[in-house]
Amino acid sequence: MFTLRRVIISNSKNAFVRFNSNSSTSSGIPKLGTTPNKFNPKSSAFNLRPILPDGLFYHPAPAAPNPEITPKAFLPKSDIRATSDLYYPEEQLSITNNVKYMPVISKISTPKNYNFDSSIVEKLQSMRDQGKSRKEIKETLNVTDNFISLVTKPNPETQANQKKILAKSARKWSAKTLKAKKLKEEKKLHWERDL
Asked: Count of alpha carbons within 13 Å of 1, Cβ hemisphere only?
């Protein structure tokens, strides 16, 4: 293998681009590291306008680790290489080395545990009555938000504060919004009474 250092200037559509190919393959064909682009290669990577020099260049596909190797995932099942341990043994090694760096695609759902006795429910209610936040309750008793809502009643002081805030914002509502809200309340009452 020898190194070929050549600078090529190509005149294509009145744009002069300089190519420096300092490596070559064993056959002596100069290797093109990246596809030369008319625009900035970083900011306009999606808008590829290649300006290739005249002549023959060795330009392998960027996805494969080696252009002579096709990853086993892309081989047909009938191909002998797909099941052979001799073909591309580095693939398994690279997978096992990089698994710890791979991001989690989906979270495994953990089964919910609702096997709590009445003492925990009483603790939950007392903490909620004291005005403790859901975050504090979750951390101390290791329960979910949903479980807190199912088992306990909200703090009356917090409810009163929420009603005051709602009444303040209701003063700013238009007549149309007020009418819609009243209609919604009536529908809720009818639904609760099963009318």
From this structure: 7
Torsion angle defined by CA atoms of residues 121, 126, 130 and 133, in that order, rounded to the nearest 10 degrees = -10
Taking each helix axis from N to C end, the angle separating 134-141 and 118-129, rounded to the nearest 10 degrees, works out to: 150
Q: Is 30 helix (H, G, I), strand (E, B) or coil?
A: strand
Tokens coding 169: 């914002």
Q: d(Cα 22, Cα 128) in Å, to the nearest integer?
A: 71
> How many angstroms separate the CA atoms of 97 and 190, rounded?
62
84's torsion region: left (phi>0), alpha (psi -120 to 50) or beta?
beta
Closest CA to 3 of 36, 19, 26, 34: 26
* Cα separation, 73 vs 90, whole angstroms: 14
Centre a 10 Å sphere on the Cβ of residue 128 and count the other Cβ atoms it contains.
19
pLDDT in tens, the chain (195 residues): 333 334 444 444 444 444 444 555 556 788 877 788 888 888 887 888 888 878 888 776 666 566 677 888 888 889 888 888 888 888 777 778 888 887 777 766 666 777 788 888 999 999 998 888 889 998 888 888 888 888 899 888 888 999 999 999 999 999 999 999 999 999 999 998 886
Give the predicted TM-score (pTM) of the model: 0.35
For tokens 């303040």, what's the residue?
Answer: 168
